[in-house]
Design brief:
This protein is an alpha/beta fold. The protein is built from 10 helices and 11 strands. Strand 10 and strand 11 form a beta hairpin. Helix 3 crosses helix 5, helix 3 packs parallel to helix 6 and helix 6 packs parallel to helix 7. The longest helix has 14 residues. The chain binds adenosine-5'-triphosphate (ATP) and magnesium ion (MG).
């Protein structure tokens, strides 16, 4: 049982000046699954995500990754343990973005005075990764010039460069046109083949296509859990979405 759970939280709580945004969340993410965190606006999804990736410090509660307590560990240390959130891309060439991420995986701090030579050794792997996310023809494109949907694919490529055991994706299809949503959905499925994925996602069609397991948050607490068929029929879930103005 313990071995099956890659990420676990117990009593995860975050207060902002007396307002409890995440309240006593006990999350169990099973190894090898795609797990979605959903819920109406203001449910605490982003806060929860930021706690898991240590962009926020919990008010109380524990986070355990692969049997080790990681509460309070710096994000870089957690990344080295194998849990990585999708990166914000930088405004440089695509190949450069992926190479820099690959360079990070080698466990050194960024020493830019010698990085040009070191980075060029990583070209082949970077090209492979761009190809894996459907960006093979874009290696010398500036990241800022990419269409929005392709930028999200690039973020996934830079994350894959670290070959994480577990990937956390924050609204991977947010703001995308239909074709891009389909492409990213297929990409997530592909990269999840040999790793665990936890994603916050608003698009319920993406959630239903991808998720093995879903946790529904509302007002900072877990409202329901299960597969899509189960949670979408759950009366409290229907009520929470209707109450928040969702259809
Ligand atoms: N830094 C902060 N200070 C104070 N309140 C905050 C802060 N961050 C979030 N909140 C509040 O916590 C609650 C949960 O916010 P959060 O962004 O986690 O929700 P969410 O589920 O991601 O919502 P959405 O679907 O709109 O992205 C909201 O009421 C929000 O206003
Ligand atoms: Mg959010």
């Amino acid at each position: 049982m313990a071995d099956e759970i890659i990420l676990q939280t117990r009593g995860l709580t975050k207060e902002f000046k007396g307002f409890v945004a995440v309240n006593g969340v006990d999350l169990d993410v099973r190894r090898g699954t795609i797990h979605a965190l959903i819920g109406p606006n203001g449910a605490g999804k982003t806060t929860c995500f930021n706690l898991l990736t240590h962009f926020l410090t919990p008010t109380s509660g524990q986070i355990v990754f692969n049997g080790r307590e990681i509460t309070g560990s710096p994000p870089a240390a957690i990344a080295r343990m194998g849990m990585v959130r999708s990166f914000q891309i930088s405004a440089t060439f695509l190949l450069e973005n992926v190479r820099i991420a690959l360079h990070g995986k080698r466990g050194r701090s960024f020493d830019f005075w010698r990085s040009a030579r070191t980075l060029s050794a990583l070209d082949n792997r970077a090209e492979e990764l761009l190809e894996a996310v459907g960006l093979a023809g874009f290696a010398t494109t500036l990241a800022v010039e990419l269409p929005y949907g392709r930028k999200r694919a690039l973020e996934i490529a830079t994350t894959l460069a670290l070959d994480p055991e577990m990937m956390l994706l924050d609204e991977p299809t947010a703001g995308m046109a239909h074709d891009d949503v389909e492409r990213i959905t297929a990409l997530i499925k592909k990269v999840a083949a040999n790793r665990t994925v936890l994603m916050v996602e608003h698009n319920l069609s993406v959630v239903s296509t991808l998720s093995d397991h879903i946790t529904v948050l509302a007002r900072g607490e877990i409202l329901a859990q299960g597969d899509y068929a189960a949670v979408s029929k759950h009366p409290d879930v229907i009520q929470a979405y209707l109450g928040a103005g969702h259809a």
